[in-house]
Amino acid sequence: MGANLLVANASALIEGTLLTLALVCAALPLAGLLAVPLTIGLGSRSRLIRGAIHAYLVFFRGSPLIAQLFLIYYGAGQFRPTLESIGIWWVFRDAFPCAVLTFALNSAAYTTVLVRGAIDAVPKGQIEAARALGLPSGRITRHVVVPQAARLAFPGYGNEVVLMIKASALATVITLFDLMGTLRLIYSKTFDLTIFVWGALIYILLIGTFRTVAHLVEQRLFCWPKV
Amino acid sequence: MAHRQAAGTTATVEYHRQQRQVIMQFSRIVLAVCAALFTQTASAQERALKIGTEGAYPPFNSVNSEGTLIGLDIDIGNEICRRLEAKCEWIAADFVGLIPGLQNGLYDMVIASHSITPERTAVVDMVRYYSSDATMIFAKDKLRDDVSPAGMAGAAIGVQSGTTHAAVLDAQYGEATIRNYPTQVEAYADLASGRIDAVMGDKMALYDYAQTEDGKACCLLSEQAIKDPVLGDGVGIILAKNSPLRAEVEAALTAIRDDATYDTLTNVYFPFPIW
Hints:
- By secondary structure, chain A is an all-alpha fold.
- Chain A contains eleven helices and no strands.
- Chain A has one domain: MetI-like (MetI-like fold, Orthogonal Bundle).
- In chain B, the strands form three sheets. In chain B, strands 5-1-6-13-7 form a five-stranded mixed sheet. A five-stranded mixed sheet of chain B has the order 10-9-11-8-12, with helices on both faces. Chain B has a three-stranded antiparallel sheet with strand order 2-3-4, with helices on one face.
- Chains A and B meet through helix 4 and helix 10 of A and strand 10 and helix 6 of B.
């Protein structure tokens, strides 16, 4: 009970936490990379591109993450011969890449909507003024739109990271022993519920640390007055 | 009142008469309801027993295409309820949540093919209802003759998390890669798709899978048995510690075995004795 439980299972808990962090640190950059073309595509004039991206957003934002995990992991297993013939079975063979891919696809959907909203929220008057001043389109984007959109999107993106840290607990269902999986394993051996209290504290610690850092970054990076 | 009546005796009498009528009608309704309830409770002599199970462990407990729980655990449970003159209420839940659920009073008993181990009997009571051996089922091209820790070095073995099999693999099979699945059925899925080489489990559950279409196509059951004290001794029905139901369940099981109902029930699933 109590601290004994924590100390006895310390190495397993540390390994679990590291895997959680690995999942999050791999999925977030990938999600960011995926979100860039998607965000640009949402502003495109082609109805086909916009429609395709909307379909992607509806699917990944409208279905539960756990269902997406099952679909991609066990679904890929069913289609193994097809995937092998294309040469991408190696991505789906292990649970870790599958989980990273699913988390990234899911997070990219939310991030795209967030960033698109932020870009659209930059006052149009500023862009008109910049054009009137003769600034080329690239410079307008880089110096006028992006900094302000980034400031608008930052809190929402921070939320997205926190949600990802918590969502990583779902990786247990596809055999990954992240922090949540380790907690369940320890519980099934000891029948002691306090391990979940310790696990919750670890998650709170991780998220609290991230929030503090994000707050400091926000204050340093976006220190110009709001227009 | 829609119209004015002259104040006086007639109006008052009329008012009181209407009041009495309303009260009489109301009382009749109340009496009728009470009578109905009383007859209902009088006829409900059976007690209801809430039984927890998993529903993802064929052929012992699984869910058919209509969503009903089926399997040997359910058959034996229903037979016990029949002998105890009780009504079985089956609840399917996550495997690792079954024992905690019982301890919290969510279920009167749990029948989900739990192995009888000292860790479990320290917190709950268990009544044996069949015996089992542990073994492994292999993907056809990955069959190994030796299922000991040395023989399985380098193999990827799947197992259901929270089971005694998972505990054995965790403790002894350090040279192999162990993959833990939330349910047995998901372990079979990965075995069929080639992500793992073998699945460790109860001989009888693995035998059942090996008889299915997918099982026959992909896999071979090992002839070897794995013995370990961690695997426990027999498989039991779980009851709360010192529950009064224990004596009744034991008596019911003895009666079921004595009149060969047990053999009738188990022969549906297995051509060999499993007690």
